[in-house]
Amino acid sequence: MLKTVDIAPGVRLVCVKTDKYKTFDINVSMALPLDENASANALLVKLLRRSCKAYPDLTAMNRRLSELYGASVGASVSKMGDAQILTISGDCLDDKFALDGESIISDFISLICEMIFNPNIKSNSFGTDNLAGEKRLLVQDVLEELDDKRTYAFNKCIEHMCENEPYGKMSTGTIEEIESTKMNAVYAAWKNLISTARIQITAVGNVTPKKIETAFKAKFKKIDRQPCEIETIFLKKPQRFARHEERITANQGKLVIGYRTGMENKFDGLYPEVVMINIFGGGTYSKLFTNIREKMSLAYYCSAMLIVNKGIAVVQSGIDTDKEKAVSAGVINQLNEIRNGKFDDELIASAKKSIREGLTFNSSDAICRYYTNQMLNENIEKPEDFIKGIDSVTKEQICEAAKKMVLDKIFMLSADSGEEAAQ
Amino acid sequence: MKINEFRDETLGEVVYTAKHSSGLEIRLMPKENYDSVFALFSVNYGSIDTHVQQKNGSFKAIPEGTAHFLEHKLFESEELDAFELFQRTGAYANAFTSFDRTAYLFKGSERTEESLGYLLDFVQKPYFTAETVQKEQGIIGQEIRMYKDLPDWEVFFNLLSILYPKHPVSIDIAGTQESIAKIDDKLLYKLYETFYNPSNMCITLVGKMDKDAVFKQIDKSIIRKKQPVPERKFDPKTPKSKQKYIEERLAVGRKQFCLGIREEIDKPELSLEDEYASGILLDILFGKDSDFFRKIVDEGLTTMEFSGSLFNGYGYSAYLISGPSEDPEKLADLIKKEIAKAQKTGVSKEEFERAKRKYYGYAVRGYDDINGMANTLTALYYSGYKPFDDINAIKKITLARVNKRLKSINVKDAALSVILPAE
Q1: Between A361 and which of A17, A175, A366, B397 could a Cys-Cys bridge form, CB atoms 3.0 to 4.6 Å apart?
Q2: DSSP strands (E only) in B188-337
Q3: Can you name the CATH fold of A2-220?
Q4: pLDDT digits (tens, 9 = 90+) for A99-144
Q5: Closest-CA residue to B337 (of B286, B265, B277)
Q6: Residue B364 and residue A93: Cβ atoms within 8 Å?
Q7: How far apart are CA A3 and CA A13, in angstroms?
Q8: Where in chain A is the domain with CATH 3.30.830.10?
Q9: Which CATH architecture has domain A242-422?
Q10: Which residues of A touch B358 (CB under 8 A)?
């Protein structure tokens, strides 16, 4: 049973009560404009996760989670359009399985509230050592992403495409920005977060919405809320096409091709867009998989994805570096075929079925993520309504959506194999 | 077919099992109110099977990577590949090969009978030719190269190469460029006949289903085979290496390490209780709520990615502790000292109770996950266990057993693998 409740200005609870699962899931997602405060915000959410007044260090906090039958809590930073999203997400065991009859879920919700509203602050400071520790860990997170070449190449393409838009910025800010963040900025970020962020609390499990509502309402009551407005720029056409390249020593090259979809906002022609991208590179039946990978054996993977909240589509491929031209030509050719209607009804049916499958949820976590992704939308859309929208898409609409796609940037991470470099 | 019923009242779950006259094990866990079913059709044949037992009991070597190669090839039938078949029902289909298993799977919400029919059919009807095998060499070659760029993968396999220098577990699951070049269609057909024998296989379904219909459908679709299945090779004295350190340079920004301590085993597999006791032990010593973890994070020696696990399967078992580190050798030294220190005092009752409770919570919640449970039920079968033996084993673990496992660790045998940034 789905219930939506406004808890405070700009704070919404979306709760799905179900006894199907043995897990309770909760996400508290907080949106702010993605700007020069990105690093302070990112460090803040990590500090909130690290400790609170009641559990004043990482070990005490983690021991508390262990006592709650291995409940887990994560703090993450991401982008949704031109918004920065700070999320405290967690899950715990359902009360039914408690060995001593305690309410694990109530204790867990209280703990999450403590993290956000009663952080471990003394005279406006989170503690110099704590901040230094989180800076180091956040820089390590950024470096980890740099080590994953697929993600690295993807991020580079986005960075080049959106160099004049907030979306081009890293969600955590750069390493330099993280390292130079001052304590007073982090403290100000906390004040700003609880009073201005647009917040959605999404919860799934065997719990009444009232219980969560009461817990959070008590906390928000004391705060003067002035929720921020976040606008996302949707560029219909790129400023200019360009190809960028970097070289590394590796075995496999990564080719990323970025498109502007022509969407003017995140609901503009959404359903045809979703189906078109799925036909293009969504699954094993897609144009890219069957042609570039299977028929032409040009790539180990080749897929397309739609970034709805920004109106961008991205093709990603792992290839031998010397095949770049053949692959990009192949990708462009496949998109042209969709534009010209060169695909059969069976492919449309496969794409629609696959999208439908993607919207059948078999865990509390998957349901929680589905609703969390709508945190910036005014109305919550149930999966069955989304599916209706998908089912209504026609072949003409798909062709039209493909025609609106404009190539924006190509990023190539070229690989010089280790053996060659050694010679 | 005689159907056995296993019930766990606390979990509120039921599993039905049956042994088909062909020798195939069938395990079904219907979950009411779930939207999808997950099916896993597996064979007890993985990358460690590089020697095939002959009729006279001796073992004959085969190239590395055959199980994985066959997995790729079985996905093709004479008319269509498996992906194309599953497009019709909208189910998600895939396959994977591990050290000791190959498995084919689908997850779908509608037309289960049809999807199950495809799964049963393509796994039992191999079709490939000299040409299609040759083409696959290119695709698998790409796959092997891609993994060579992944620091997590490399740090792990480099470690295995010194922990188990003569054991197939140290070879990439897909084989090597040289070994796959030796694989042809004739060899694959021969190995298919040897290993893909129902008495060496298991099919598991978890989720939405009509169990009687599923039993019936499987019963009439299994192709019986007469010849016996060869025994797996077990060498309790597989040689050790004198080498205790290995490093590799990759295009990464951070150093990474994996410390391994091999366990000498006289039986091919550990008992479930020993396996879980080791998991609890590692959590007590190196978990996120341990004093040790706080110390090394405070000293800037690692990040939240630091973790310990037991890596075990048929004929191998090792404690692994891994993560990023600025100073892998110093951290490895601290880890060894920590184990030695704990061996003197033993772990405390309080630590044990907390970790066990956490483990119990994880295990119960694991029953929500249809994919995870299909894999768990399958793994239990191949190791000779009944449904729910996993959760029962956790309940039975004692402090004494954990301390016994702790005492048995031979710290002097520790080996260290390190990934360094390219110069």
Answers
A1: A366
A2: 201-207, 245-250, 256-262, 307-313, 316-324
A3: Cytochrome Bc1 Complex; Chain A, domain 1 (3.30.830)
A4: 999 999 999 999 999 999 999 999 999 999 999 999 999 999 999 8
A5: B286
A6: yes
A7: 8
A8: 2-220, 242-422
A9: 2-Layer Sandwich (3.30)
A10: 66, 69-70
